[in-house]
Amino acid sequence: MGDPFLRASGDEASDGIHTVTDDDLRQRSGLPQEIFDIVPRDHVEAFVSRVESWADLDAALDGALVSAGFHRHEQRGGGTGGFNIATWLRDDGVILSWALAGRMHSGSDPFDDTVESVMHPALAAILQDCGFDVEIIPHDQDDAGCLLVTGLTAPSKPA
Are residues 103 and 131 in the same domain? Predict the structure, then answer.
């Protein structure tokens, strides 16, 4: 049996995405109408397909990290800090990163770099211990230093 978190294009999560109405697609995307109206439909379809195909992995990561005492970064209002999961960026997994409180995104500030250099390996170790397939993205690739999580290879440890 294959890994349920590794899904190929065209499986159940994206079946029929090309035939849904614009209203249904906008609702599934969560995009405000004014943004939905300017983004090409095929880009919204790709976004929705990725988000929906990684939803189970997203939920499992959230559960594992919240059980470990972390909280998810809330971007509204300047940002709460915490872990952030991006399910829409890649086909081969989700990107997990650490965000500092009060920041919408990390910059090239030495303090930000120090915090991320500590938190990303720590999060990777915790997730590996919980049974996730995770690697730190090499510095010569997009999203360098962040984590790429591709699945759950073993049952999570009880909280």
Answer: yes
pLDDT digits (tens, 9 = 90+) for 6-15: 444 444 444 5
Which token pair is 16? Answer: 């029929």
Instruction: Please provide the DSSP assignment of the chain as one string.
Output: ---TT---TTSTTTTTGGGS-HHHHHHHHT--HHHHTTS-HHHHHHHHHHHHHTHHHHHHHHHHHHHTT--BPP-GGG---EEEEESSS-SS-EEEEEE-TT-SS--S-HHHHHHHHHHHHHHHHHHHHTTEEEEEPPTTSTTTTSEEEEEE-SPPPP-
Q: Are residues 48 and 84 in the same domain?
A: no
Residues 49 and 84 in one domain: no
Contact 71, 82 (CB under 8 A): yes
Q: Please give the model's pTM, rounded to 2 decimal places.
A: 0.79
